[in-house]
Amino acid sequence: MNRKQVVITGIGLVSALGEGPDAHWDALSAGASPVVDETSFAPWSVHPLPALSLDKQIPKKGDQRQMEPWQRLGTYAAGLAIDDAGARDLVADMHLIVAAGGGERDFALDEQVNAELAHANDPAQAGARLNELLSTGLRPTLFLAQLSNLLAGNISIVHGVTGSSRTFMGEEAAAADAVRIAHARLAEGRGEIALVGGALTAQRWDVLLLYRAGGGVWDGPHKPLSDRLASGGGMIFGGMSGFLVLETEEHAQARGARVLARLDAVATDASHRAAPGDSAAAARALLSRVAPEGVDAVISGATGTAAAWAEEEAFLREVKAPFRRPANLIGHGVEGAFTAHVALAALALSRGGFYAPMDPADAGEAPSPDRILVTGFGQWRGEALAVLSRPSSSRKAENA
Amino acid sequence: MRDHLGRPLVAVTGIGAVTSLGFGVAESWSRLLAGQSGIRRITRFPTDHLKTTIAGCVDLPEDRAGEPLTSPVRVERMAAVAIEEALAEAAIGSKGSFPGPLFLGMPPVEVEWPPRFDLTRQAGAPTYAAMTGAARNRKDIYETFLFGGVGERLSARFGTRGAPISLTTACATGASAIQLGVEAIQRGECEACIALGADGSVHAEALIRFSLLSALSTRNDTPEKASRPFEKARDGFVMAEGAAALVLEDYDAARARGATIIGLVSGCGERADNFHRTRSNPDGRAILGAMKNALADAGLEPGEVSYVNAHGTGTPENDKMENFGMRAIFGENAPPISSNKSMIGHTLSAAGALEAVFSLLAIRDQRLPPTINYDEPDPSITLDVVPNVARDASVRHVLSNSFGFGGQNVCLVLSGEPA
């Protein structure tokens, strides 16, 4: 099959460092400090979202009211990406893939139910009372704000994106596969333009509860990612969203769009991590498909969990390129992380530079990389690699 | 063999199903053809204070009184049963080793009330902060309720290749899973894959959520009569559980290994709506777009469709829009259309996959399943809905509709093996 080159023409990026390309480039190229809230969820820390001017991207208050913070964040960042690509008039046939978690629960209601029923002895009575409490306590439209596919639904409603709509689930891996499938569909000629991304709101207890049950959450004030390893490692979550407008190169050229970067290849796997080294081996095999001739720099998807960290360290030693770990500054963004990191790679390539070290252990300098690798080693499962290159780069892209 | 767009044909070589009518394709299909209903009163948890107390429940052997399985566990069990059946029929790979990826359509999952109560007791306080404190190293909770958990366990058990993709497009989820699998084969990413839709969301909170949206039938006194797609007195859908798995294969590869071809997935079409979170645009644009795109993808004219397997939820709104879409696509000569949901309820994330399976069986047996509970016609719905009784028909191509909350619409075309 004659595969088409795919390029990135727009990014929508929100993190604790701010929103938009300039805020991120300015902070990260100069060297930024982490933005952390260590008190609201103490003893756990979070990287909080900046204040968003929601009206700019979600003009109808009625739409804003139908969502909770997670859907608002993603819908907002999706709009930033569409604007950045100058693609407002192309949304009708734009394809959409979202990597989604779930929306916020009603925390006060949950705690009220817990208080009344957690110690109940009679299951029949407790079940009946649960029904009563939920029937009278749940807001009728909250369900729509919780449904995973309704982030994509809201992007369709608010921004008019109606080519197609798919929602992938599965933590970090969902975002990597969303980018992989969006890339593959454009490359084979299924559509000309696509929007892909994800979002995480970290300032919420249900996220902390679920992931802490896995043992991988950092307990305490912020410490540099690499310094946490000595105490067993751990994730600090960060509110973030990354959306990308992907386009076939010919479509972008035909409409005179500015190209930020080429998306050369995306590949994913999910080793079962039965033994140490499995994950690194899976990533190594992916690298030989996406970038057999190496890369100039790496944006690492390191989450902070110890086991995945060790696997990625082993992998990076062989890549032999300077690397940066955004999670130290903006936290770990689960479904929002991979696309945010691809957006950071595209941003660096478009500015012709790279970022200052983000974690004290980040090593090497890449003054002007032509080719950047984005890694994803999921906190539990999932290995993913994406390779981006400078649009002016003469190197031939491999097909993965 | 290639299709009209030069792509490999995609064959179905194995199917598996779990519904409220039975475990397995044979039992579900024979009871569908007999016009039986799987809808009944919910017994596995108390239903006091609920507006709707009926569902198409698939009760599992592991369900214990007062302690039913949680949704992700239920989804995984039913999915595994359906995959086992599909693999046995396809006779592909070996035990624990399947030569392709997994596309898993499933509902979003979240930590449920039993673990929240458990953590509250352990913490001695009902707050999220206390529960989070008590949650440390509760890998059982973590791995059960991670979105990627079910896919990882199914992938490990059946030995599928690469990263399993778990997805949701609401009520179109099962069809989207099939579409992803078809695309993977068409682009040469694999020669075989498993596409699956599964749902096990019948619990109190889910029922309440749908009730608050006024989406569910409240005909609690006569459960088997509650799901009434296209009928005048329809008052909402009936939640249900189930799973369907399809082994999809490159047609030439399947023929080369001597596999039995059940049928083809010959076209997929999708179109998103931007009108409203739970309703279609009254102009029907997205529904029409999905149906037209599916026919165009299959290279078919509307007149070549023998039968339509409806989305047919039994909500006043859906059935009216589906009727509108049918007339707009097919004009005066609309083919018969029937709704499996009249018998097995709305299996949500599983519906698109189950209905694809039943569409293939309609082609295999040259027989149309009925729309039951069709007592009084709705004058605004003018279609031949195969009322109440199955019938023989010449069936070559079937259009299967799936329209989701959130505006995600997917249509599939299922076809018989090329002559």
TrEMBL record, chain A:
<feature type="domain" description="Beta-ketoacyl synthase-like N-terminal">
    <location>
        <begin position="4"/>
        <end position="252"/>
    </location>
</feature>
<dbReference type="InterPro" id="IPR014030">
    <property type="entry name" value="Ketoacyl_synth_N"/>
</dbReference>
<dbReference type="InterPro" id="IPR000794">
    <property type="entry name" value="Beta-ketoacyl_synthase"/>
</dbReference>
<protein>
    <submittedName>
        <fullName>3-oxoacyl-[acyl-carrier-protein] synthase II</fullName>
    </submittedName>
</protein>
<dbReference type="Pfam" id="PF00109">
    <property type="entry name" value="ketoacyl-synt"/>
</dbReference>
<dbReference type="GO" id="GO:0004315">
    <property type="term" value="F:3-oxoacyl-[acyl-carrier-protein] synthase activity"/>
</dbReference>
<keyword id="KW-0808">Transferase</keyword>
<dbReference type="InterPro" id="IPR016039">
    <property type="entry name" value="Thiolase-like"/>
</dbReference>
<dbReference type="GO" id="GO:0006633">
    <property type="term" value="P:fatty acid biosynthetic process"/>
</dbReference>
Automatic annotation (TrEMBL), chain B:
<keyword id="KW-0808">Transferase</keyword>
<dbReference type="InterPro" id="IPR014030">
    <property type="entry name" value="Ketoacyl_synth_N"/>
</dbReference>
<dbReference type="Pfam" id="PF02801">
    <property type="entry name" value="Ketoacyl-synt_C"/>
</dbReference>
<comment type="similarity">
    <text>Belongs to the thiolase-like superfamily. Beta-ketoacyl-ACP synthases family.</text>
</comment>
<dbReference type="InterPro" id="IPR016039">
    <property type="entry name" value="Thiolase-like"/>
</dbReference>
<dbReference type="Pfam" id="PF00109">
    <property type="entry name" value="ketoacyl-synt"/>
</dbReference>
<dbReference type="InterPro" id="IPR020841">
    <property type="entry name" value="PKS_Beta-ketoAc_synthase_dom"/>
</dbReference>
<protein>
    <submittedName>
        <fullName>3-oxoacyl-[acyl-carrier-protein] synthase II</fullName>
    </submittedName>
</protein>
<dbReference type="GO" id="GO:0004315">
    <property type="term" value="F:3-oxoacyl-[acyl-carrier-protein] synthase activity"/>
</dbReference>
<comment type="pathway">
    <text>Lipid metabolism; fatty acid biosynthesis.</text>
</comment>
<dbReference type="InterPro" id="IPR014031">
    <property type="entry name" value="Ketoacyl_synth_C"/>
</dbReference>
<feature type="domain" description="Ketosynthase family 3 (KS3)">
    <location>
        <begin position="7"/>
        <end position="416"/>
    </location>
</feature>
<dbReference type="InterPro" id="IPR000794">
    <property type="entry name" value="Beta-ketoacyl_synthase"/>
</dbReference>
<dbReference type="GO" id="GO:0005829">
    <property type="term" value="C:cytosol"/>
</dbReference>
<dbReference type="GO" id="GO:0006633">
    <property type="term" value="P:fatty acid biosynthetic process"/>
</dbReference>
